[in-house]
Amino acid sequence: MADANAASRSQFSSQISGTLPERPELVLVMDLDGTLLGGTLAQRRQFYSWLEDRRDGVLQIFSTGRDLAAVRSLLGGDNGLPPPTPHLVIGDVGSTVACGLSLETVPIAVDPIEAQWQAVQPLLDGHLEGVAGLSPQLRNVERRYAFNYEPQVFDTAILSRLELLGVDCLLSDERFLDVLPAGVNKGTTLLRLLDLLDLPHGQVVTAGDTLNDLAMFRTGLNGVMVGNAEPKLRALHPELENIYLAEAHGCGGIAEGLRHFGLDCPV
Ligand SMILES: [Mg+2]
Fold first, then answer.
1. How far is the CA of 33 from the centre of ligand 1 (A)?
2. pLDDT digits over 31-64, tens only?
3. What is the Å distance from ligand 1's center to 146 Cα?
4. Please, what are the domains in the chain?
5. How far does the centroid of ligand 1 lie from the alpha carbon of residue 52, in Å?
Protein backbone atom coordinates (compact mmCIF):
# COMPACT_ATOMS: atom_id res chain seq x y z
CA MET A 1 0.00 0.00 0.00
CA ALA A 2 2.81 2.39 0.92
CA ASP A 3 4.43 1.63 -2.44
CA ALA A 4 1.17 2.27 -4.29
CA ASN A 5 0.81 5.62 -2.51
CA ALA A 6 4.36 6.61 -3.34
CA ALA A 7 3.77 5.62 -6.99
CA SER A 8 0.62 7.72 -7.38
CA ARG A 9 2.26 10.69 -5.69
CA SER A 10 5.29 10.43 -7.90
CA GLN A 11 3.13 10.10 -11.04
CA PHE A 12 1.11 13.13 -9.95
CA SER A 13 4.27 15.15 -9.29
CA SER A 14 5.63 14.29 -12.72
CA GLN A 15 2.49 15.79 -14.29
CA ILE A 16 2.80 19.25 -12.71
CA SER A 17 5.26 22.15 -12.88
CA GLY A 18 7.05 23.18 -9.71
CA THR A 19 7.12 21.21 -6.49
CA LEU A 20 4.61 20.69 -3.72
CA PRO A 21 5.57 21.06 -0.04
CA GLU A 22 7.02 17.67 0.96
CA ARG A 23 5.30 17.34 4.34
CA PRO A 24 2.90 20.29 4.64
CA GLU A 25 1.90 21.37 8.13
CA LEU A 26 -1.45 22.43 6.63
CA VAL A 27 -3.41 21.69 3.46
CA LEU A 28 -5.60 24.76 2.93
CA VAL A 29 -8.40 24.32 0.40
CA MET A 30 -10.09 27.62 -0.39
CA ASP A 31 -13.06 28.62 -2.49
CA LEU A 32 -12.37 31.89 -4.36
CA ASP A 33 -15.40 34.17 -4.90
CA GLY A 34 -16.81 35.26 -1.55
CA THR A 35 -14.11 33.35 0.35
CA LEU A 36 -10.45 33.96 -0.57
CA LEU A 37 -11.59 36.95 -2.66
CA GLY A 38 -13.90 38.20 0.11
CA GLY A 39 -13.24 40.35 3.18
CA THR A 40 -11.85 43.86 3.42
CA LEU A 41 -8.92 45.00 1.32
CA ALA A 42 -6.77 45.13 4.46
CA GLN A 43 -7.73 41.55 5.45
CA ARG A 44 -7.01 40.30 1.95
CA ARG A 45 -3.66 42.04 1.77
CA GLN A 46 -2.63 40.60 5.15
CA PHE A 47 -3.90 37.11 4.46
CA TYR A 48 -2.32 36.91 1.00
CA SER A 49 0.99 37.92 2.48
CA TRP A 50 0.57 35.24 5.20
CA LEU A 51 -0.03 32.64 2.45
CA GLU A 52 2.93 33.86 0.43
CA ASP A 53 5.25 33.56 3.43
CA ARG A 54 4.11 29.97 4.03
CA ARG A 55 4.39 28.60 0.53
CA ASP A 56 6.85 25.92 1.65
CA GLY A 57 4.78 24.73 4.63
CA VAL A 58 1.16 25.20 3.60
CA LEU A 59 -0.13 23.32 0.55
CA GLN A 60 -2.47 25.87 -1.03
CA ILE A 61 -5.36 24.65 -3.16
CA PHE A 62 -8.04 26.79 -4.81
CA SER A 63 -11.40 25.04 -5.07
CA THR A 64 -13.70 27.04 -7.28
CA GLY A 65 -16.64 27.11 -9.64
CA ARG A 66 -14.48 29.13 -12.03
CA ASP A 67 -13.08 27.52 -15.12
CA LEU A 68 -9.32 27.71 -15.70
CA ALA A 69 -9.57 30.78 -17.97
CA ALA A 70 -11.34 32.65 -15.18
CA VAL A 71 -8.70 31.54 -12.67
CA ARG A 72 -5.99 32.66 -15.09
CA SER A 73 -7.49 36.14 -15.46
CA LEU A 74 -7.73 36.42 -11.67
CA LEU A 75 -4.08 35.47 -11.13
CA GLY A 76 -3.15 37.82 -13.97
CA GLY A 77 -4.19 40.70 -11.75
CA ASP A 78 -7.57 41.66 -13.25
CA ASN A 79 -8.93 41.73 -9.73
CA GLY A 80 -6.69 44.53 -8.48
CA LEU A 81 -5.26 42.51 -5.61
CA PRO A 82 -4.70 38.96 -6.90
CA PRO A 83 -4.17 36.21 -4.34
CA PRO A 84 -0.84 34.38 -4.39
CA THR A 85 -0.42 31.59 -6.93
CA PRO A 86 -1.71 28.31 -5.46
CA HIS A 87 0.03 24.95 -5.71
CA LEU A 88 -3.06 23.30 -7.19
CA VAL A 89 -6.47 24.28 -8.49
CA ILE A 90 -9.71 22.32 -8.30
CA GLY A 91 -11.81 24.16 -10.89
CA ASP A 92 -15.17 23.79 -12.64
CA VAL A 93 -16.82 22.85 -9.30
CA GLY A 94 -14.68 19.71 -9.00
CA SER A 95 -14.50 18.55 -12.62
CA THR A 96 -11.03 20.02 -13.25
CA VAL A 97 -7.72 19.58 -11.38
CA ALA A 98 -4.80 21.71 -12.52
CA CYS A 99 -1.31 22.72 -11.54
CA GLY A 100 -1.41 26.14 -9.87
CA LEU A 101 1.69 27.41 -11.66
CA SER A 102 0.95 26.39 -15.24
CA LEU A 103 -2.83 25.95 -14.96
CA GLU A 104 -2.38 22.80 -17.06
CA THR A 105 -4.76 19.99 -16.12
CA VAL A 106 -3.32 16.98 -14.27
CA PRO A 107 -4.20 13.87 -16.31
CA ILE A 108 -4.06 11.36 -13.44
CA ALA A 109 -6.76 13.35 -11.63
CA VAL A 110 -8.84 14.56 -14.59
CA ASP A 111 -8.92 11.56 -16.98
CA PRO A 112 -11.47 9.52 -14.97
CA ILE A 113 -13.79 12.57 -14.79
CA GLU A 114 -13.35 13.21 -18.53
CA ALA A 115 -14.31 9.60 -19.31
CA GLN A 116 -17.41 9.89 -17.15
CA TRP A 117 -18.42 13.17 -18.83
CA GLN A 118 -17.87 11.77 -22.34
CA ALA A 119 -20.24 8.93 -21.49
CA VAL A 120 -23.01 11.10 -20.06
CA GLN A 121 -22.84 14.28 -22.16
CA PRO A 122 -24.59 12.86 -25.28
CA LEU A 123 -27.52 11.77 -23.11
CA LEU A 124 -28.16 15.40 -22.16
CA ASP A 125 -28.74 16.49 -25.78
CA GLY A 126 -32.02 18.33 -26.15
CA HIS A 127 -32.81 18.40 -22.43
CA LEU A 128 -31.31 21.76 -21.56
CA GLU A 129 -32.15 23.95 -24.54
CA GLY A 130 -34.95 26.50 -24.40
CA VAL A 131 -35.75 25.91 -20.73
CA ALA A 132 -37.51 28.94 -19.23
CA GLY A 133 -35.36 30.88 -16.77
CA LEU A 134 -32.16 29.06 -17.77
CA SER A 135 -29.31 30.60 -19.77
CA PRO A 136 -25.94 29.01 -20.51
CA GLN A 137 -22.87 30.74 -19.09
CA LEU A 138 -20.65 31.84 -21.95
CA ARG A 139 -17.47 30.41 -20.51
CA ASN A 140 -14.95 27.70 -21.27
CA VAL A 141 -16.33 25.25 -18.74
CA GLU A 142 -15.08 21.69 -18.94
CA ARG A 143 -16.56 18.32 -18.04
CA ARG A 144 -19.81 20.01 -16.96
CA TYR A 145 -22.47 22.44 -18.14
CA ALA A 146 -22.88 25.79 -16.38
CA PHE A 147 -26.01 27.96 -16.43
CA ASN A 148 -27.43 31.02 -14.79
CA TYR A 149 -31.00 30.54 -13.59
CA GLU A 150 -33.75 32.90 -12.53
CA PRO A 151 -35.19 31.57 -9.26
CA GLN A 152 -38.65 33.04 -9.98
CA VAL A 153 -38.93 31.46 -13.43
CA PHE A 154 -36.85 28.27 -13.57
CA ASP A 155 -38.79 25.12 -12.68
CA THR A 156 -36.43 22.87 -10.67
CA ALA A 157 -38.59 19.80 -11.39
CA ILE A 158 -36.39 19.15 -14.45
CA LEU A 159 -33.39 18.49 -12.20
CA SER A 160 -34.50 15.11 -10.87
CA ARG A 161 -35.27 13.97 -14.44
CA LEU A 162 -31.77 15.01 -15.54
CA GLU A 163 -30.19 13.20 -12.61
CA LEU A 164 -31.73 9.94 -13.83
CA LEU A 165 -29.45 10.31 -16.88
CA GLY A 166 -26.29 10.13 -14.73
CA VAL A 167 -25.51 13.68 -13.71
CA ASP A 168 -25.68 15.72 -10.52
CA CYS A 169 -27.42 19.10 -10.67
CA LEU A 170 -26.06 21.68 -8.27
CA LEU A 171 -27.80 24.98 -7.53
CA SER A 172 -25.80 27.63 -5.71
CA ASP A 173 -25.84 31.30 -4.78
CA GLU A 174 -29.49 31.55 -5.97
CA ARG A 175 -28.22 31.97 -9.53
CA PHE A 176 -25.91 29.19 -10.71
CA LEU A 177 -26.81 25.72 -11.99
CA ASP A 178 -24.00 23.27 -12.64
CA VAL A 179 -24.62 19.94 -14.34
CA LEU A 180 -21.77 17.58 -13.46
CA PRO A 181 -20.99 13.90 -13.97
CA ALA A 182 -22.73 12.02 -11.11
CA GLY A 183 -20.66 12.03 -7.93
CA VAL A 184 -18.22 14.69 -9.14
CA ASN A 185 -18.07 17.75 -6.87
CA LYS A 186 -15.61 19.78 -4.84
CA GLY A 187 -15.70 17.18 -2.04
CA THR A 188 -15.08 13.95 -3.95
CA THR A 189 -12.40 15.55 -6.11
CA LEU A 190 -10.61 16.84 -3.03
CA LEU A 191 -10.72 13.41 -1.35
CA ARG A 192 -9.35 11.79 -4.51
CA LEU A 193 -6.58 14.40 -4.63
CA LEU A 194 -5.62 13.76 -0.99
CA ASP A 195 -5.53 10.07 -1.84
CA LEU A 196 -3.35 10.55 -4.92
CA LEU A 197 -0.94 12.71 -2.94
CA ASP A 198 -1.08 10.47 0.13
CA LEU A 199 -1.88 13.43 2.39
CA PRO A 200 -3.23 12.92 5.92
CA HIS A 201 -6.80 14.17 6.39
CA GLY A 202 -6.03 15.65 9.80
CA GLN A 203 -3.95 18.42 8.27
CA VAL A 204 -6.67 19.69 5.92
CA VAL A 205 -8.86 22.77 6.38
CA THR A 206 -11.43 23.74 3.72
CA ALA A 207 -13.19 27.10 3.40
CA GLY A 208 -16.23 28.25 1.44
CA ASP A 209 -19.36 30.36 1.26
CA THR A 210 -22.01 28.87 -1.08
CA LEU A 211 -23.87 25.63 -1.71
CA ASN A 212 -21.25 24.43 -4.17
CA ASP A 213 -18.93 24.21 -1.13
CA LEU A 214 -21.34 21.93 0.75
CA ALA A 215 -19.75 18.77 -0.69
CA MET A 216 -16.40 19.83 0.85
CA PHE A 217 -18.14 20.48 4.16
CA ARG A 218 -19.67 16.99 4.06
CA THR A 219 -16.33 15.19 3.74
CA GLY A 220 -15.77 15.23 7.52
CA LEU A 221 -12.58 17.25 6.99
CA ASN A 222 -12.14 20.37 9.10
CA GLY A 223 -13.69 23.37 7.40
CA VAL A 224 -14.56 27.03 7.78
CA MET A 225 -17.89 28.47 6.66
CA VAL A 226 -17.12 32.16 6.29
CA GLY A 227 -19.41 34.75 7.88
CA ASN A 228 -20.90 35.89 4.55
CA ALA A 229 -22.03 32.35 3.62
CA GLU A 230 -25.28 32.21 1.63
CA PRO A 231 -28.33 31.65 3.88
CA LYS A 232 -29.16 28.18 2.46
CA LEU A 233 -25.65 26.96 3.30
CA ARG A 234 -25.63 28.59 6.71
CA ALA A 235 -28.95 26.88 7.54
CA LEU A 236 -27.22 23.50 7.10
CA HIS A 237 -24.38 24.33 9.50
CA PRO A 238 -25.91 22.57 12.54
CA GLU A 239 -25.87 19.21 10.73
CA LEU A 240 -22.26 19.48 9.50
CA GLU A 241 -19.36 17.93 11.40
CA ASN A 242 -16.05 19.72 12.01
CA ILE A 243 -17.19 22.91 10.33
CA TYR A 244 -16.51 26.19 12.12
CA LEU A 245 -18.91 29.05 11.37
CA ALA A 246 -16.85 32.24 11.31
CA GLU A 247 -18.11 35.72 12.10
CA ALA A 248 -15.69 37.49 9.80
CA HIS A 249 -16.23 37.55 6.06
CA GLY A 250 -14.01 36.16 3.32
CA CYS A 251 -10.30 36.10 4.15
CA GLY A 252 -10.99 37.35 7.66
CA GLY A 253 -13.26 34.32 8.15
CA ILE A 254 -10.63 31.88 6.85
CA ALA A 255 -8.05 33.33 9.28
CA GLU A 256 -10.56 33.21 12.16
CA GLY A 257 -11.26 29.55 11.32
CA LEU A 258 -7.57 28.66 11.17
CA ARG A 259 -7.13 30.11 14.66
CA HIS A 260 -10.14 28.05 15.80
CA PHE A 261 -8.35 24.94 14.55
CA GLY A 262 -5.26 25.89 16.55
CA LEU A 263 -3.17 27.35 13.75
CA ASP A 264 -1.11 30.45 14.11
CA CYS A 265 -2.79 32.90 11.75
CA PRO A 266 -2.66 36.47 13.08
CA VAL A 267 -4.76 38.18 10.37
MG1 LIG B 1 -17.82 31.19 -3.35
1. 4
2. 999 999 999 999 999 999 999 999 999 999 999 9
3. 15
4. 2-13+23-107+184-260 (3.40.50.1000), 113-181 (3.90.1070)
5. 21
